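Lab meeting, item 3. Inverse folding demo.
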């Protein structure tokens, strides 16, 4: 069974503390993500209060992920498989994924949640059913509820089911443009680029200026 990533789920982190300004920060982050990913015409970005989604529509996941690592305001993100919303399809998917990524000695856990409460199994039942499917595929594997090596995250939404297991660290901080604007003088040393990076990470939209005045020998008449 060959699976391909359908989207990247993006988590905000620090933006959750912004209270009434939360959506302003989220909308700015969405716009920044769209700007960075504009080189991938098929990729579409949406954002809500809890997280953003970059829908790949067939675009290769790896270069998109590398681009997302550079966007301030993202805590982490996960590539996601879109699966038919049925128990047989989910069992086949988790078995295929685990067979592909499992190595001797690794432990696992199934973490399920439902936003579609009409689905036939609740979260606990889904954990048990999919965990059993993994044991059928890999009888020697061990389950571990705390700090497993592999955490298969399963989400049941209205339109489909989604599975992810990898969490990639983002740049953190605040979206660029949410903390005003500033000018950065680039001296040519290391201090000013570091200062610029730290300002960007705190949401400051900076313009960099470098003044070069080469020494011109005086002409002797």
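The presenter then showed the designed sequence:
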């Amino acid at each position: 069974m060959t699976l391909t990533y359908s989207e990247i789920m993006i988590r905000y982190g620090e933006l959750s503390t912004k209270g009434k300004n939360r959506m302003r920060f989220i909308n700015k982050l969405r716009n920044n993500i769209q700007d960075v990913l504009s080189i991938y015409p098929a990729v579409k970005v949406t954002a809500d209060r809890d997280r953003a989604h970059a829908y790949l529509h067939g675009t290769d996941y790896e270069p998109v992920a590398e681009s997302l690592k550079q966007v301030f305001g993202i805590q982490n993100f996960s590539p996601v498989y879109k699966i038919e919303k049925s128990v047989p399809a989910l069992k086949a998917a988790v078995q295929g994924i685990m067979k592909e990524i499992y190595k001797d000695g690794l432990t696992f856990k199934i973490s399920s949640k439902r936003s579609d409460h009409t689905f036939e199994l609740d979260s606990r039942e889904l954990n048990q059913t999919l965990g059993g499917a993994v044991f059928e595929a890999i009888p020697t594997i061990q389950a571990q509820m705390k700090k497993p090596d592999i955490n298969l995250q399963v989400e049941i939404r209205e339109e489909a089911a989604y599975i992810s297991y990898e969490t990639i660290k983002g740049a953190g901080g605040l979206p660029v443009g949410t903390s005003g604007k500033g000018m950065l003088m680039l001296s040519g040393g290391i201090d000013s680029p570091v200062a610029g990076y730290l300002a960007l990470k705190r949401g400051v939209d900076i313009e960099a200026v470098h003044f070069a005045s080469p020494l011109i020998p005086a002409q002797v008449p």
